[in-house]
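Summary for the steering committee. The consortium agreed at its last meeting that each partner would contribute one worked example illustrating the joint modelling workflow. Our contribution is presented below. We chose a case with several input lines so that the handling of multiple components could be demonstrated. No manual editing was applied between input and output; the record is shown as generated.
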Amino acid sequence: MKCKRFLSISILGVFLLIGFVYYTTVFIFIEDWVGLQSSAGSLNVIIFTFLVSLCFFSFFVCVLTDPGHVPDSYVPDIEESGVPDEERRKNSVQSRHCDKCSTFKPPRAHHCRVCRRCVLRMDHHCIWINNCVGYWNYKAFFTLVLYATIGSIYSTVMIVACSIQKDWEFSERVSFKIFYVTSGVMMVALSLTLGTLLGWHIYLIIHNMTTIEYYEGVRAAWLARKSGQSYRHPFDHGVYKNITLVLGPNMLKWLCPTALSHLKDGLNFPTSRDRL
Ligand SMILES: [Zn+2]
Ligand SMILES: [Zn+2]
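What follows is the complete predicted structure of the assembly.
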């Protein structure tokens, strides 16, 4: 059952973290800064609650969506491997065989040791969603990272704004000051971590790459250089096309984690060679 994925310590940790950040931001920092009853306070609470809701929605989609499994009937298209020589063609097909699942792997699929199966367009196995990030939930994973980054930056701004206008001289106890500093440092660290992860996935999307393919590409480029050739990622179609292949052709739906009508079966992907 997919709901069983929620039974994990790391998922409980994510819930606790989001709950803690939401509670402290709304009921301590915004309340302390402008008060929840004021119009500025209410507006900030509405915006922040909306961001946290989007974050939760993407998180649920990520956890509950099957990232994509290889159908039993799948057999690789030998002609499509594009290798002219019979022996090399055989090797190329053999390299796409998963010994653990005893099936063939479609292009961009990889075996996940944690899930114990092959996953379509696998990016990585993420312990924070207790699921693989693959063909069907990559978009939700990206929106999760995006909304979480915006949310944590928002919270950091609230803490800073609250600290600046506070009269620290008389009113507050030492423990309260320590709580402010600790929360501020924690939120800055969280914003930087999530921001770096977001930057990394924007880089991957504009190159139409997965994390696994990035590392495979580094090795392939090194091997190509050694033999005096150059290497190009086979699924790179240019920045805009790459974005539409991952997030969809409709720009208005780019940030909706469930708008997936542009995805097909995850078994075949156009390569830059197809355009020649
Ligand atoms: Zn496998
Ligand atoms: Zn996995």
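The chain has seven helices and six strands. The chain has a mean pLDDT of 90.
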